[in-house]
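Exam prep: given the inputs below (a chain plus 2-OXO-4-methylpentanoic acid), describe the expected output before reading on.
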Amino acid sequence: MTIAQKLSFDVQLSDHARTAAEREQVLANPGWGQVFTDHMVSIDFTEGKGWHDARLEAYGPLVLDPATAVFHYAQELFEGLKAYRQANGSIVMFRPYANATRFNRSAQRMAMPELPEETFVESLDLLVNTDKEWVPTAEGHSLYLRPFMIATQPALGVNYPSKTYRYMVIASPAASYFTGGIKPVSVWLSTEYTRAAPGGTGFAKCGGNYAAAFVAQRQAVENGCDQVVWLDAHEHRYVEEMGGMNLFFVIGGKLVTPALTGTLLPGITRDSILELAGDLGLETEERLVSVEEWQAGCESGELTEVFACGTAAVVTPVGTVKGADRSWTIGDGTPGPITMRVREELVGIQYGARPDTHNWVHKIA
Ligand code: PLP
Ligand code: COI
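Solution:
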């Protein structure tokens, strides 16, 4: 249900914002997703009334009744995007309307209210503008933005979804998601666990998908790998995606990515790379890719590179693959030339070193 109404944000600046020196200390070594800026945005929703009480206020804890629906039934969803400080000093976001659209697709699946796309983007603009000193200047760093929505009705019944919700945005200065530079990651093929099945929530960015993934990610680490790769639920044969990233394969010089079957998250980075490939003169294909094709292609030399992509991960090469009964290396295990070219182009647009010919960059300040 989209409720077309123009909201105005009440702005109450923090009376305990960090000093410039405190902020600089954080920005010198921000890590990933551990430190948050001085403010946050909230908007409440009540069935019959729509969205109301839009506000920007000091970042701080929430007080919620223990019976609040989100704690029990995980009626929750989120988004992830970044604000970048460009070479010329501008602060921009990358394709925020694409996140707004996906947010509302997730909302439909989770029986939650949709937020007007303009309000979604406006809430991000407001938070980033208020906390713009928190947008890092260091190369490859950014301000990670986390819009999310929770069901807030204190009631345990499951006959009807919550009648009240809260949308919020928080922001966190971020270094690279993977430490150690552009180092190829090792991946674990999960055959014991499944991320998503047809008719489920795989295409939605809801917290439950991630809660159910931790056990497999832990298994990947126990097997000496960095990340879990999800396979289809039915046969555990077709490659779907990684922990928080989509996958691309370079097969016979073509960029091949698993088709969006409904069980994968439709990544905005994935979509952008499919478009950029045309600019780079690369052919693309969206189709099923099986584990056998992956392994045989590496053995024959037809499949030369694999990379993961996402907002957090940007473009990260995959070096080695391991499963319960097999393991192999992709190419010579080092980042491939097409991976690095795609990465350079994407990052170039985000940080302003390349022209934004697709109109993806949304200027904030
Ligand atoms: N797949 C999953 C499961 C994710 O969590 C993400 C991260 O958002 C992605 C793929 C990549 O999506 P995007 O490129 O929109 O960040
Ligand atoms: C992102 O790339 O924005 C993600 O959401 C990945 C993540 C869950 C860390």
